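For the sake of transparency, this paper describes our internal protein records without simplification. The tokens are whole numbers drawn from a learned vocabulary of local backbone shapes. One such record is reproduced below, unchanged from the form in which we store it.

. . .
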Amino acid sequence: MSKWTKKKKWIYTLCAAVLVLGTAGYFNRGALAMLGFNWFLSDQVATQLEQTYKPIEGREPIQVGNMNTNPFALMLLGVDQRGKETGRSDTMIYTVIRPKDGAILMVSIPRDTYTEIVGKNKEDKITHAYAFGGAKMAIETVENLFNQPINYYAAINFQGFRDVIDAMGGISLPIAEDIVNKDPDHEKFVVKGGQDVYNGNDALNYVRYREDAGGDMSRTGRHQVFLNQLLDKVSEVGQWSKIPDLIDIMGENFSTDIQPDQMIKLAQQLLQQDNRTIYSHTLKGEGHRLTNGGAWYYFADKDDLSKTQAMIGSWLNPDTAKQDLIMPDEYASKVQKPVGSLSSASDAE
């Protein structure tokens, strides 16, 4: 056999090996990512996560035991806080995670929902609960609304995640048409449609946009789409090596009462899980002014609220089989409908 023939045989063998390993790596990318995370990053990340661990004064988390098997409720708060101003929970999503089933339920609460603010003895927009009493009052108000417990919380300041999105190389968002925020009382911006990847500033404006015909319902739908895309992004092979830098970037902009070791377990599960299924529901209702010339509110539909309470209860019950779970009306599509005609649905108070 000539040297050239041997060389070609070696090249073909190498190419075949790369192809096989690459294919295996693609179909097992979650397991490979978790392996790399365990080898190189778990101890470092646990140390860095200590800065994000911020228990709420006067409130003990409702422990669930093994977070890899037991269902639990997580309150996701997206806080819009600029500079030293008092923030508001612009995004409020009651999330139930069922690790054994690989299923996640996300119930979005429109920010202008009219409800009792626990601790203030008054009814107001639910977004004001955070402004009045921080994460504690926001959580207790949502627990009262749904009559269901919340085990943990996680809050992120929208101003902080722009750098995180940029550090990940941007994020894909299903924006078919230009998004234009132009109301005289709102912040002005344009997000160009049809891009393959969006940077942190565009992503922030995508979730903040408030002038389409759907109002609060469309806004919460965009929040769900964004979180779906974000989960997909951080699950990609190659992203796990950026986790320490991302935590540093988040800095004071992220807080939770989930202990670092528990967060590590959740991250490991996220990295290795390719069959994650996310179902979403936005609390139904209608918006109008309480009185002539008064503030604009969103009033939850009583029947839908009752069904949502029952749905959450079935998801939190560890004895409920996946096929017996009460499901939302529609599956959480990852394809956002094109932005419709522009009209202001609320005064954004």
User: Anything to note?
Assistant: The chain has nine helices and twelve strands.
